[in-house]
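User: Fold this; C-alpha cells only.

Assistant: Input:
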Amino acid sequence: MDENWIEQVRLTLNQKSSEELRQIWEENDRTAWTDDAFEAIQRILEERGESIEPQALPAPLEVAQAAKSQERPGCVTAYALLTAIGIVLYALFSIIVAIAVGVDEAGMIEIGTMLVLTGLIIAVAVGLWRLQNWA
C-alpha cells in the first residue's frame, strides 16, 4: 500500500463523522471503497479512540457484480425488445417490397446492406438485453 496515498485518503475521510466512517467500515463494500480507504478509515477511528469490530469477509467481486448485473431496468428491456422487433419487421417489409417491385443489381446491393445493418442492430438489442456496456 502506498502510504502517501493512504494519508491523502485519510485527510479526505477525516472530514466525515465517526458514525459515517463506522457505517462504511461495517458495510465493507469493496466495490464502492478501496482497500486504501478501509486502511484510512481504520486509522481515523483508532486515532479518535473508537473501537472497531473486525470486518466481515467481503463478497467476492464476481458475486457482487453478478448481483448488480441481474437488475435490468424496465426501460432497457422495453428498448431492447422494441429495437429487435422493429428492425426485423423493417427488414421483412423491405424484402417484400423489393420482391413485389422487382430487384435489379442495385436493389440486391441495397438489400444486402440492409440485412447487414439489421444484423448489427439485432446484436445491439441482444447486448442491451444482456446489459453489455458496449450496447
